[in-house]
Amino acid sequence: xxxxxxxxxxxxxxxxxxxxxxxxxxxxxxxxxxxxxxxxxxxxxxxxxxxxxxxxxxxxxxxxxxxxxxxxxxxxxxxxxxxxxxxxxxxxxxxxxxxxxxxxxxxxxxxxxxxxxxxxxxxxxxxxxxxxxxxxxxxxxxxxxxxxxxxxxxxxxxxxxxxxxxxxxxxxxxxxxxxxxxxxxxxxxxxxxxxxxxxxxxxxxxxxxxxxxxxxxxxxxxxxxxxxxxxxxxxxxxxxxxxxxxxxxxxxxxxxxxxxxxxxxxxxxxxxxxxxxxxxxxxxxxxxxxxxxxxxxxxxxxxxxxxxxxxxxxxxxxxx
Length: 320
Known about the structure:
The chain has ten helices and eight strands. It is globular. 45% of the residues are buried. Strands 1, 2, 3, 4, 5 and 6 form a six-stranded parallel beta sheet that branches. A two-stranded parallel sheet has the order 7-8. By secondary structure, the protein is an alpha/beta fold. β2, α4 and β3 form a beta-alpha-beta unit. It has one domain: Alpha-Beta Barrel (TIM Barrel). The protein has helices spanning 9-15, 26-32, 59-78, 88-101, 122-127, 155-165, 179-188, 212-220, 247-261, 303-316; strands at 36-41, 83-84, 105-111, 130-134, 171-173, 193-194, 225-228, 266-270.
């Protein structure tokens, strides 16, 4: 989105035409006590409807866009603003240091796999620090996604997922996969599985959301489902400009996922960098620190896991 995320949240909002739109910055994460985030590499594709004036048109362009984002994360790390986490030992070292300095850690997630120009290039990105790959956003060269092309895996997609299954340093993100792509992927893929930011299709229709069967499969693989905080993904038919619902709509999705696979597999996906502002999130969210208000809305004993413990358990179970 071209925002300077090193600024305090209030200052960035002051500069933005829509003052509520930036929902998280590095200082806001630090002030909220956020220890770790999944930091995305996201290259937006050219699309006549969704992105008519920009976006990548070729794999080389997608590769360059994602690499530029990774270089930004590396620069932040060099400046001491973040720490990049790529291993289990690195995670534990970061958490110890974070207790003293509050510097957030970033674990790199590629959202939409088109920057991987060919499946053989997976190792290049893993060597560069990518630890989670979601093959789709909309439809990509690899998989049907949550809008546009909603078919299954392509031949290249099957090759990519097979390569991921053989690469112990990377996990498969089911978020944005079409239902057909999801089931074709889990037939091939045997490694760690998650849905980094997805809600339940039980309450909101469409390919962007997980069916009960998909949720159960993620649970069977001991994965975690992170809830998205966008109101249109929480309430069927919600539109920008409608009144903000309360936390109850978010908890309804979380509780449904928990009823299928347990509270130990429920997390926060947020999608705070997803282009929606606080007016599109449940009240009273105004930034990352307000996520702690969930404690008053969750069952006894669930909050510590949901706020981060479940993600840490999952990461410790497979990170090399």
